[in-house]
From TrEMBL:
Pfam families assigned: TPR_6, YfiO
Name of this chain's protein: Outer membrane lipoprotein BamD-like domain-containing protein
Domain of life, per lineage: Bacteria
Chain ranges of the Outer membrane lipoprotein BamD-like domain: 44-158
InterPro entries, A to Z: BamD-like (IPR039565), TPR-like_helical_dom_sf (IPR011990), TPR_rpt (IPR019734)
Top-level taxonomy: Bacteria, Pseudomonadati, Chlorobiota, Chlorobiia, Chlorobiales
Keywords, ordered alphabetically: Signal
SUPFAM superfamilies according to UniProt: TPR-like
Coiled-coil intervals: none
């Protein structure tokens, strides 16, 4: 009996049909499984990302922690984790020396969540970020000024009284709580004293940083004045020497600026102004009277002839 052969074209067509069938069936099965799995809400996704970032931060993988949080900035808005995300991201940027980004995140937190428990730390770290961005005195001093402003605001809001007084307050409220542990007033006083003691290091740093940064501004202004002297633009030089005298009298640049002002006024032939500037200089530094004798004689001779 002859065996009936199936045409090759028909056979291949059947194989293709079966392949398509199994592919469609598999796709439907996968879709069914995934649709039966509950989808995470946006807030849950933020929570998972935050937990992962916190673990990376603890491992000192700061750049990876930042990378895990960056996509959550928008999703975390108006959620309970908004300030957590912003603060940890800012801390990650700061720890990885990305100070421009850290300053932006600390500032965002202060603007977007002003009542956040991270407010105090963010104010302080914003100032520290600006301090890190402050360049040498010969460059633009925008961030030096921002650092001074931010530290000043921090001290105005969180500056502590005398450390010894804070320590006494802590001891006092600690003893009072032993007498009446349920007193809400004593508890508030104890927590306030404890917080004041804890912030002493940051307050000490802020208080020390401001004069250093202020001195840098004085150096920058004095440097500009000397550059104008080199260019023989004495009028402009006088303006910047006067700025040092007016704004940075408590820095080491004061004496040099006063002497420089006398010199450029003499060069400009402004004898009356030069005499006044020299009198002011000698009032501050009477020990230099002999050294400035020649300058005084030149000024007086020309002043009397004018």
């Amino acid at each position: 009996m002859a065996v009936k052969r199936i045409p090759q074209a028909t056979f291949l067509s059947s194989i293709r049909t079966l392949s398509v069938f199994f592919l469609v069936a598999g796709t439907l099965a996968l879709a069914s499984c995934s649709s039966s799995r509950p989808q995470m809400s946006a807030e849950e996704q933020v929570s998972v990302a935050y937990k992962k970032a916190a673990e990376l931060y603890e491992k000192k993988e700061y750049e990876n922690a930042a990378a895990a949080l960056e996509p959550q900035l928008f999703a975390s808005r108006a959620t309970p984790l908004e300030d957590d995300v912003l603060f940890l991201l800012a801390q990650s940027y700061y720890a990885s020396e990305q100070y421009l980004l850290s300053s932006d995140m600390y500032d965002r937190l202060l603007q977007q969540v002003p009542s956040s428990p991270y407010r105090e730390a963010s104010r302080y770290m914003l100032a520290k970020s600006y301090e890190q961005l402050s360049p040498g005195y010969e460059l633009d001093q925008e961030y030096t000024r921002k650092a001074i402003g931010a530290y000043s605001e921090y001290l105005a809001e969180y500056g502590v009284k005398d450390p010894a007084s804070s320590a006494r307050d802590l001891d006092t409220y600690s003893e009072l709580l032993k007498i009446d542990p349920s007193s809400a007033s004593y508890q508030r006083g104890y927590e306030a004293a404890k917080l004041a003691m804890a912030r002493q290091d940051s307050v000490k740093h802020a208080s020390a940083a401001i004069p250093v940064l202020h001195n840098k501004l004085g150096a920058a202004t004095y440097s500009i004045a000397t550059q104008y002297v080199k260019l023989k633009k004495y009028k402009a030089a006088a303006i910047y020497f006067e700025k040092v005298v007016r704004n940075y009298g408590d820095t080491p640049w004061m004496k040099k600026a006063q002497a420089g002002l006398v010199d450029v006024l003499v060069k400009r032939g402004k004898w009356f102004d030069a005499q006044r500037a020299l009198d002011a200089y000698l009032q501050s530094y009477p020990e230099d009277l002999e050294e400035m004798k020649g300058t005084r004689e030149v000024i007086m001779q020309n002043f009397s002839n004018s």
